[in-house]
Write a structure and sequence with these properties.
The complex is a heterodimer of chains A (344) and B (514). With 344 residues, chain A is mostly helical. Chain A has one domain (56-337): Orthogonal Bundle (ABC transporter involved in vitamin B12 uptake, BtuC), CATH 1.10.3470. In chain A, 76% of the residues lie in helices and 1% in strands. In chain A, helix 3 runs antiparallel to helix 10 (239-266), helix 3 (55-80) packs across helix 12 and helix 4 runs parallel beside helix 6 (145-165). Chain A starts with a helix and ends with a helix. With 514 residues, chain B is α/β, with parallel strands linked by helices. Chain B has three domains: 10-248, Rossmann fold (3-Layer(aba) Sandwich); 253-345 and 430-509, Rossmann fold; 361-423, no CATH class. Chain B contains 21 helices and 22 strands. In chain B, a hairpin with a 2-residue loop joins strand 9 and strand 10 (221-227). Classes of the chains: A mainly alpha (344), B alpha/beta (514). Chains A and B meet through helix 8 and helix 9 of A and helix 13 and strand 18 of B.
Amino acid sequence: MSKLKEYLKTLPRRLGKTAAVVGAAVVLFAVFLLCQGVNPLSVYANMIASTLGTSYGIGQVLIKSTPFILIAVGTCVSAKAGLVNVGGEGQFAMGALFSVTAALFIGDSMPSFFGIVLMMLAGMIGGAFWSGLAGVFKVKANMNETLTTLIMNYIAYQIVSYFVFNQLKDPDSFNWPQTSEISESLQLPRIWGKVTIGIVIALLAAVLIWLMISKSKWGYSLRVIGGNANAALHAGINVQKVQMIAMLISGALAGFAGAIEISGVEERLRQTTGVNYGYLGFLAAWMAWNNPATAIFTAVVIGFLSVAGNVLEISSALPSSAIQILMALVLLAILWKGKEKKSA
Amino acid sequence: MSGSATAPILETRDLTKKFGNFTANSGINLKLYRSSIHAVCGENGAGKSTMMKMLYGIYTPTGGEILIDGTSTKMTPQKAIQSGIGMVFQDFRLIPAFTAFENILMALPKDEARGRRKDIRKKIIEISQRYNIPVDPDQYVWEMDLGQRQRVEIVKVLMMSKTRLLIFDEPTSVLTYNEVKAFIEMLRKLRSDGYSIVLITHKLHEVISCADVISVLRHGVITDTVTKEQGFDKNTLIAKMMGEDVADRVMNYAEAKRSFDPEKAKDVLVLKDYCISDDHNRCVIKDINLTIKEGEILGVAGISGRGQKEFVETLFGLRAPQSGTLELEGADYTHKGIHSRIDAGVALISEDPKRDNVVPGMSIYEHMVLAGAPIKTKGLGIDWSIIKTELDKSTLVHTLGVPNINRELETLSGGNIQRTMLARAILKTPKLLLASYPSRGLDIGTVEIVHQTLLELKKKGGAIILISEDLDELFNMSDRLCVIADNKVYGEFIPEQTTSLKIGELMLGGHKDE
């Protein structure tokens, strides 16, 4: 447990450093706001008041953070095996597609608990299927996983579009490209306001993955591969197999996020369901230097910024996407900090 | 080349360098004169590199001063070049995608690089002929072996017209036996042309013939400086380098050899018509027929890069052979994976541990269980505390001088990494050890410890394939010898019944008068 102790002991100092670089990004964004003729202080005050100041706002942050946590942790798993999986977007979409299909098929036919479990499994299978394809490309044909997962995001988007325009289109939707609503019995139970049990599942999954990576024998071989694949090969580790499993887990987590989004938030699938979640989750993982424990925090930060982006639109007439400038600045600041760490 | 013959070009007074609490160098006093070869000898970690980096201005000294032509100077690499100090680094500062000519041009000071290309090329060829340093200006650096790269580096420094003092950092470590001879010849010629030369090395026997002054560096302090007039005594100098205790021990190789009885020993590895291919699926060594027995050391001589890497990697299972069969203790392992070979007792010491073994961010003990010590599990996790205790108790770990096992392996010096990886390989008493250059780059004392460790494994019945370029090592250690050259394995030879001259000829020319 000494590593955990060390982790907790150094946590305040590291968080302090992170706060400093994030602070720099916040200041830079304030300059941008000033250039736009907006008072940054009031914008920041509004952002915080409307997210952390009300129980509704806090709930929204938790709901938004749920998929980010799962995707970020999934990205960490593959990253530890030395793979850059940028496919959270597509794996999330396939997970959502598989789970919504399962949900529409199940309907009211079985007890809520079993129905939801089946839906979640379908989501995980969908995500794992999509990342698994990229894994096969990597292992069998040595294709760069960064490129294949990225390209497959676009394919997944088109597949989802195809189904919501065709087979899965809600007949009562006046031709809107969306599926019917899933049965009420398949919606995730709520624990607080609109917040569902999804956030709890996500946190549990994250902790489990963190334990698996840092404590288990499998996690050890994973880290060896990520550190130096050659050394793993020399140690008799089956590099391709471990990488393949890491890809499957990574995609399953993103697909799981898709299922939770369907079951707990959207209750149906649209073309736009979860657009950009995959990239934001990837962002969260890299902000955390692919440490799944830290990724929980960074995912919540991204969740907070996403919700706060809406406030930006309302209170300052800037498009909500302007918040992405702040996210990018934060990421750059953190990467900069990491660069200093390495050169020191 | 200015200044009188008697005044030193460069002088240091009480030069000291500290890294935190660690003193790398202290009270270094050197005087470097023109037309002289000054060798600085010391074992790994004695502080040679630190000293040289201060001379060239890469490190700022913590104390003391550097005088050039008698005036105290704050050194920077730019200042060093201006003052005529040239440095030939151990890890060359060349750009692989450029030709030799382009690399040299790039390194020249602005006013010298501005001349006509044709003249510069002419000067390169002049220098390379004068000092017998064959360099093809139009060859790309990535096509060159290490010896050729070093020659480019040397020409580069000599091209700067101000150069009058050359510092060489472990120059012979990348050179073959014959190249070393040529290198020493070149040094003599440079000296007679008035250059001042500083040679930093741990290979005492190579410099003893050409040096004018030898300084011994030990634990960061110059313990002795001897001039040629006073006479060099090899044994005294070694004792000064190593400390008395190590020098007193004499290895008895012959006795270890007698312990091996080829009649009684069982076969460990049998290769039949085995063919090795490289990354491009070209055959690099064909038709190998070899048998290695328990407790036997088979020495494999050859100039590096003749397929040795592919040979051990194929035996270890990292590569598939083109054809042929491999048997381990009677069982067919030709198509078995690395994992099952490790389980069967095969261990590999890589020629480049940094590339093949070091996982950044992981500690020594975490490396030790990688294909080494058995992993102790606790539930689904790993019980690191038991592993650490067992490593602490291991005499092998202590004999080989493995540093504190909590340190990150990546942060250790090359020699320390090598020793740690040897300890890891020997820890589980392998039945077959594939040792690629286990003593390359190590100092004399450590080489002896490495040899002793290998001989102990041999006594326990381990079979060892020893890949090396060092003929002394091969003749001392091996029960049988073979040579890799011309895509073939020549041999076997019994070391007592052949000569190093014959083996050396085979290494260079392959099959000639056999």
